[in-house]
Each structure stands twice: as C-alpha cells, then as structure tokens.
Amino acid sequence: MSLTIVIFYVFAAILIVSALRVITAKNPVHAALSLVLSFFTGAVLWMLIEAEFLAISLVLVYVGAVMVLFLFVVMMLDINFEELREGFWHYFPVAGIVAAIMAVEMVLILIAPSTGLQSFSSVAPLPDGVSNIKQLGVPIYTQYLLQFELAAVLLLVAMIAAVTLTLRKRKNTKYINPAEQIAVKRADRVRIVKMAAEVEQPSTETSDDAADKPSA
C-alpha cells in the first residue's frame, strides 16, 4: 500500500466524521465549523489527484464565501432551531435510503479496477509545461460547453429566486418606493406658515405679589 492510498484513507475518514458532525451537532455553529473541515478535507483529496484548481476553488468559494455567510446567518439571526429539528425523524427514513444508495455507489466506484484506488498509483504525472487548469478549461469550453452554460443558467435562476423570496411582502414590514421619493417636491413636504409675533405678557405671580405688599 502506497503512501498516497494511506493519506487518502486518513483524510476520507476525517471527511466522513466531519460530515456526520454536520447533521448530528446540536449547536449550529459547531455544525458549520464541521462543514468547513469537510470542505478542507475534500480539498486535500482533490490535491491527491493533482486537481489543484478544484481544490483552491473549493476552499476559496465555499469556505471563504459560503461558510462565512452561513456563520453570519446562524450567529446574527434569531432562528428557532428547535422548530427546524421537529421534522428530522419524519424525513430520516428517506434520507437514510438516499445516503445508503450514495454510499453503495461510491464503494462500487472505489473497488472498480479502472477508477478505483488501484488506479492512483498508475496515473502518469503531467509533463513539464502542461497545466491541469488548461486541461480542465479546454473540455469545459469545447466539449461540455452546453452543459456548462446550462449550469450557469440554473445558478442564475437560483440567485434570482433567492432575491425574489427575500423581497416578499410581510405584514409588519415598511417599504419605501424610490420612484415616489424622487418625485416628491418641496411643497409636498414643507409648508411655511406666517404667524404674528407674540408679545410677552407680564407674569401673574409678579403682579399678585406687588398687590399684596403694603404701601409705605
């Protein structure tokens, strides 16, 4: 057994444990941090097959952007996680079946002679001057261009849907129409009123005290 396979097994075990902690941790912050560990471990596995671009993208995009957003949402918003966990056991059987099917598929891939762990040691290293980024980019923008564009469209639709969901009207929320604000004139908001100047009247207490004093 080569050192590469040993490293793969070690980091694969860490990835499985951290992924289980994501769904079993009661503290949402701990779950988010376990997901960060899963992403880092997955990046290491990408490095083992010399896919440095995918590994760096996984760390920068998911850990640097998505997970930071998750932590801000979890730590700054008042979310009732007890209500979210109420339906966990209701959906657990279906989730367990899906997870078992995925596990069986991954095992079948790993034990296959052409795509399994035995093929790691037989993969020839890249020649000098050849970048794996170029080898990844050329098929994407030539052979798989249509699939790549469809994935981009799906992500765009998901982004628009997320923005639309956040803009839904609520009863206790006040909204401002920018067009109405721009169309407002000074006469609509400010009214100048002319009033006569007020004359200060003598204090009644002072006049009463003067009246109470005996004359000399």
Top keywords for this entry?
single chain; 216 residues; mainly alpha; Four Helix Bundle (Hemerythrin (Met), subunit A); 3 domains; 10 helices; 0% strand
Describe the structure.
- This protein has about 220 residues and is mainly α.
- The protein folds into three domains: about 80 residues, Four Helix Bundle (Hemerythrin (Met), subunit A) (Up-down Bundle); about 40 residues; about 40 residues.
- Helix content is about 70%, strand content about 0%.
- It has ten helices and no strands.
- The radius of gyration is 34 Å and the shape is elongated.
- About 0% of the residues are buried.
- The mean pLDDT is about 80.
CATH topology heading of the largest domain: Four Helix Bundle (Hemerythrin (Met), subunit A)
Mean pLDDT: 78
Taking all Cα atoms into account, the compactness measure Rg is: 34 Å
| Number of helices, where a helix is a run of at least 4 consecutive DSSP H or I residues | 10
Helix fraction bin: 55-70%
Integer count of domains: 3
CATH class identity of the largest domain: Mainly Alpha
- The unreliable regions are none
Question: What is the H/E string?
Answer: HHHHHHHHHH
The largest sheet is: none
Structural class: mainly alpha
CATH superfamily of the largest domain: NADH-ubiquinone/plastoquinone oxidoreductase chain 6, subunit NuoJ
* End-to-end gap: 124 Å
Q: What's the architecture of the largest domain in CATH terms?
A: Up-down Bundle
Total strands: 0
Strand content: under 5%
What is the 3D form? Answer: elongated
